[in-house]
Write the structure tokens for this entry.
Amino acid sequence: MAHGAHGSVLVVNSGSSSIKYQLVDPVGGGAIASGLVERIGESEGLVKHTYAGNTTTRTDAVPDHGAGLRAVLALFDEVGPDLAEAHVVAVGHRVVQGGSVFGSPVIVDDDVVAQIDALAPLAPLHTPPNLTGIQVARELLPDVPHVVVFDTAFFRTLPEAAATYAIDRAVAKAHDVRRYGFHGTSHQYVSGKVARVLGRKLEDLNQIVLHLGNGASASAVRGGVAVETSMGMTPLEGLVMGTRSGDVDPAVLIHLQRNAGMSVDDIDDLLNRRSGLKGLAGENDFRELHKLVEAGDEDAILALDVYVHRLRKYIGAYHAVLGRVDVIVFTAGVGENDDIVRARALEGLEAMGIAVDLERNAGRKKEPTIISPDWASTLVMVVPTNEELAIARQAVATVEAAGYEGTSDESDPAPAAAGHA
Ligand code: ADP
């Protein structure tokens, strides 16, 4: 296996009761090993570690994140790969909220930790577990540089007109209320990948990127620079999602508080966990939703209609933002796998030079694929996202720029030939 030759990156994504990790070969792009720790703090934990095609599972209690990461390192020791041999050049941490402070990845030190901590009020559910993961990883792996990659960083370039909410400026400023955008690592990776696959310069391409997973967001990217995105101060704004509402009239919240006796926490729960496809149809997985639609379930039919309608509104809006659109690209669980959503999102737009070829579109896409017909002036593509690889490559670039020993090879291998699949 080639990973020993040029080093690897351990990518860590630490949530409130879970840790997901992947040991990534940043040059070849593959995952050398991967796994997750779940049910941290519960009486029975779950640790799953996959290496060389075998998954090892442990169900001992994992009292806290430190114990979780120690269990992971023990599994690396026991079943491999040997982390010393894998030559870990950096640990890359995903952090959700970088606020107005962080526009690029940074090497962790105590100051950086304090700055991230100060941003916690903007992402109170995500930031504390992100930081806990960073701190325990620094203690357990003290000899490698730790790099933080922010979900918001790609959107630090949003023009003020796109980032500003039209509310009292003093209130907004006092409480850091502005649009930050999320899923940035994915939007950046996918838009860059499009250019490489097409053999075009990123600077020459205007793209609309549709990251449709359980969470979903759209972005407008002009020449590699993000100029608009659908998520706002939090990942709740914008598209209809699995369990999140996306856009609603803010006065709905006032109404529910005044007239339905709902507390702030009730409304938080409503909009984040009891809305979106789940709220409309009782089901947030598209595979199940389509079955309900086929069976004639009216709630499911409406849910799909609302989802597609919102998506089309954003595509139209981003057309106006960009003026000219060269590529529309679908990614993440729904975008990569759901040909029905892709076809419906772009139906009837032939007059705009946009269409989906139903044969090219059919089925799940594991590789970058063009799904528009040859005559269309806008290319429509599916490009699988890979946030772990993107974090690994950014971590390597960051430690190399800081003068650490990094990987010596090209970190961006030639893409597979473009073509109509
Ligand atoms: P997350 O936001 O949790 O990272 P993913 O990007 O993994 O989400 O997307 C998960 C969603 O992708 C599922 O909820 C489901 O709706 C959708 N999905 C996954 N596989 C398929 C499939 N084969 N067909 C249609 N939709 C799929």
About this structure: Confidence is low (pLDDT under 50) at residues 409-421. The pocket of adenosine-5'-diphosphate is lined by residues 213-215, 242, 284-287, 332-334, 337-338, 364 (CB under 6 Å). The chain has 17 helices and 14 strands.
